[in-house]
Design goal:
The chain is built from 11 helices and 19 strands. By secondary structure, it is α/β, with parallel strands linked by helices.
Length: about 400
């Protein structure tokens, strides 16, 4: 039974499988550098890791729904897994499930029906119908990359070029007339940090986080013909679009606002529960909105609700802190809060700053709120998709 979907071919699926395998192994091996697997290999995974990988692949592509789940263990390797997934999708092609990075909590599955994804894809295909090539730096196993560098090029019948191995400086220099560059704000920030000119008629799309006006200005100065920012989340897929940092976002055609609930939206024709917009928003009408601050949820430390956002703000008040991130440690790290701090350029000695921050917070926060571990670096850690990333804290003697 054929699905009729042009993206379900082994050649197109293999990059998604590779990215999913790489991300899964990275979670299973915290603190280690995990190389991308070759088509014939699986990153030297052991038997327990192979079980985890087969489960992740089955969950994402719903291979269990077709009854072919056992083949993921019987036929191992990226090529074989891709072929099994294509065979499975020919029998069952109703949904896919993405897993959040866990950057703002525990990783969680987000299931989307193919019908819903096709609604968004129709919008994107109309918006970018004149593009001749897609140049991407997004992981394909997250929803942004899946839509733009897996489904969209197959729908438009154009090639996709993965430039993640070239580095930000080469991204814009590699463009050709008619390209659509798919990236995230942090990557575009680096790509435009040195003056560069793009080819004629190049479009850029960005998502996963707010794109600062300065990045828009530098892209325009580089000769980018048009730019689109997509607002959405793993739980909802795309929600809104805008073409300028001065404009509000407009809801995509398949969404409508639930007027009596500020953060609620619902798909047209959907009789189910409304979805929640992941941020505070200001509605300017029925279909236009501005995005406000992130909604920081509480985490439990020793049975007490603690707000990482409050701890971060206390850190930012210290004169030697340029930026900071605060999150809950993993279970194996100790279950307390941890902080990643970007010192100001004139700060000398991480060890001294570590002691200063502990004393600083002791006078401002409750003991349960004070991070047990401080890590330092030149920039906050982010994933390949440009989202806030976790960092691994190794246990120290005496902890």
């Amino acid at each position: 039974m054929a699905t009729g979907a042009p993206w379900w071919t082994a050649e197109r699926v293999q990059p998604v499988v590779r990215d999913l395998v790489h991300a899964s192994l990275a979670r299973l091996r915290p603190g280690q550098v995990v190389p991308l697997a070759e088509p014939e290999g699986t990153g030297a995974a052991d038997s327990l890791e192979l079980l985890n990988l087969a489960t992740e692949l089955s969950r994402c592509f719903h291979v269990h729904e077709s009854g072919l789940g056992d083949l993921l263990l019987a036929r191992r390797g990226l090529k074989e897994w891709s072929e099994t997934i294509v065979r499975s999708r020919a029998a069952w092609d109703h949904a896919v499930t993405f897993t959040t990075s866990g950057s703002t909590g525990d990783p969680k599955p987000c299931t989307h029906s193919m019908a819903d994804l096709r609604c968004e894809l129709d919008v994107l295909a109309d918006l970018f119908a004149d593009r001749r090539r897609i140049v991407g730096v997004q992981p394909t196993h997250h929803i942004y990359g899946f839509l733009f560098t897996f489904m969209l090029p197959a729908t438009l019948g154009i090639p996709v070029v993965d430039l993640r191995g070239t580095g930000p400086a080469g991204l814009l220099r590699s463009t050709q007339p008619g390209d659509l560059v798919v990236a995230h704000p942090a990557y575009l920030d680096l790509a435009t940090s040195i003056p560069v000119q793009v080819a004629e008629d190049v479009s850029v799309v960005t998502s996963t986080g707010p794109c600062k006006p300065a990045i828009w200005r530098r892209l325009r100065a580089a000769g980018v013909a048009s730019m689109v920012e997509v607002y959405g989340a793993s739980e909802t897929a795309g929600i809104g679009l805008r073409r300028s940092p001065d404009e509000p976002f407009s809801l995509m055609p398949h969404w409508s606002r639930v007027a009596e609930r500020d953060r609620s939206i619902i798909r047209f024709g959907n009789a189910g529960e409304p979805a929640e917009v992941p941020d505070f928003v200001e509605w300017l009408g029925e279909r236009e909105f501005r995005v406000g601050s992130r909604i920081d949820g509480a985490v439990q430390v020793g049975g007490v609700n603690v707000f990482p956002g409050r701890v971060r703000m206390a850190l930012l008040e210290h004169p030697s802190v340029a930026d900071a991130a605060v999150r809950l440690m993993r279970l194996e790290e100790g279950g307390r809060l941890k902080a990643f701090v970007v010192p100001t350029p004139d700060t000398v000695g991480d060890g001294l700053l570590n002691d200063q921050l502990s004393s600083w917070l002791e006078s401002r926060l409750q003991p349960v709120e004070i991070p047990r571990s401080f890590s330092f670096g030149a920039a906050l850690p982010v994933t390949n998709a440009g989202k806030p990333a976790d960092w691994y804290v190794r246990q120290r003697q005496g902890d």
